[in-house]
Design goal:
Layout lengths: L12 E7 L2 H15 L1 H4 L1 E8 L3 E3 L4 E3 L2 H9 L3 E3 L6 H9 L4 E5 L7 H4 L5 E6 L7 E2 L2 H7 L4 E8 L9 E8 L6 H25 L14 E2 L15 H10 L7 E4 L2 E10 L2 H12 L16 E3 L4 E4 L4 E9 L5 E2 H6 L11
Parallel strand pairs: 1-2, 1-6, 2-5, 6-7, 8-11
Antiparallel strand pairs: 3-4, 7-9, 9-10, 12-13, 13-16, 14-15, 15-16, 16-17
Helix pairs in contact: 1-3, 1-7, 6-8
């Protein structure tokens, strides 16, 4: 594949968009708005591919993906592909005769026959600074790793996952209180802008590939609720990052007795506060720690903050949610429960 690409002069680029979640839906909206300005854009959106409708909510009603909802609202031609490897899907895709296949968080690896449909190339909007955090959960991965910055990469898709040549990259800082949700919102906006810049450069013939440095590659995996179960043997800083990485889904969780407890916000207790907190607890015989204080998962303090011992350091619980209840501050949560220092979570 050559290092630069040039479309046929004088004709708009025909684009097919593939994506599924909210991050991709925002990118689709921005792309559709740019395509609507046909006089200056020089490209048009000819079709959208997304995952099939899924049962959601308590009633388990079939609902479209976020990308599917946007495509329907705008009135774009759409395929909801259950299978990507069948010849039927490839033929439907080919009927759109796309110059460019744009993929953003589709959620499945695309087979070579699908990638080959694009006349110029298939490109991916990836929510990390590749080659760091390849794979299914780059946003969560960046927060979990304690990265100070992340960003968006526009890359040409190859048969190897997220290993194709880089076309454009742009970085943003990760705030100390950044959650998965807030970071995805920022990256969706950045990704949309960077994609439009890449398409313009492609039309101009100035888009240049840069190979990835394989020695710097790291990988992420799909996230499930199992990943969100807190191991109190980990250090407090890692657990605090986990709480932010899994907000708003799947939400970090532990057990209090027989009940599941969701932890929405937490903070690492400063080490110089620990001795004061212990003294405060020991000052009241009603709240004296049990013999198990110090074991990971032990509640070592309930006033003024709820503090849990971790494998290294301690974590302040800030916002909690019990099963079937609303989110509330830890202080409010404790008012309705008789929990004393020495009880164990997990």
């Amino acid at each position: 594949m050559p290092a630069t690409f040039a479309p046929t002069p004088g004709t708009p680029l025909k684009i097919v968009f593939m994506g599924t979640p909210a991050l991709a839906a925002h990118i689709l909206e921005r792309l559709a708005a740019a395509c609507a300005d046909a006089g200056s854009a020089g490209f048009k959106l000819v079709g959208v591919v997304t995952r099939p409708d899924q049962p959601r909510g308590r009633g388990l009603r079939l609902e479209p993906s976020e990308v599917g909802a946007v495509a329907a609202r705008i009135g774009l031609p759409m395929l909801k592909a259950a299978k990507l490897r069948g010849t039927d899907f490839v033929e439907q895709l080919r009927a759109w005769n796309p110059d460019l296949l744009v993929v953003a968080a589709y959620g499945r690896i695309l087979p070579d026959p699908v990638l080959a449909v694009a006349r110029l190339m298939p490109i991916n909007v990836h929510a990390s600074l590749l080659p760091r955090h390849r794979g299914a959960s780059p946003v969560e991965g960046a927060i979990l790793a304690g990265d100070k910055a992340t960003g968006v990469t526009i890359m040409r898709i190859t048969s190897r996952m997220d290993a194709g040549p880089l076309l454009l990259e742009r970085a943003i800082p990760i705030a100390p209180d950044e959650t998965q949700g807030s970071l995805k919102t920022k990256l969706a906006e950045l990704g949309a802008s960077l994609l439009l810049e890449a398409i313009v450069k492609l039309r101009e013939g100035t888009l240049v590939e840069t190979p990835q440095d394989e020695s710097l590659a790291t990988y992420t995996t799909p996230i499930s609720k199992t990943n969100a179960i807190i191991d109190w043997g980990a250090d407090a800083a890692s657990i605090e990052r986990m709480v932010r990485a899994y907000d708003p889904w799947p939400v970090s969780r532990t057990r209090s007795g027989r009940d599941e407890l969701l932890i929405w916000r937490a903070a690492v207790q400063d080490s110089d506060v620990t001795a004061v907190a212990q003294a405060r607890n020991l000052g009241s015989s009603a709240e004296a720690p049990s013999a198990e204080v110090g074991a990971p998962g032990t509640i070592v303090q309930v006033k003024p903050d709820v503090v849990v011992q971790c494998g290294r350091g301690r974590l302040i619980l800030v916002e909690l949610q019990a099963s079937g209840r609303k989110r509330m501050s830890a202080a409010e949560f404790m008012r309705g429960r008789r929990i004393i220092p020495g009880e164990r979570l997990g």
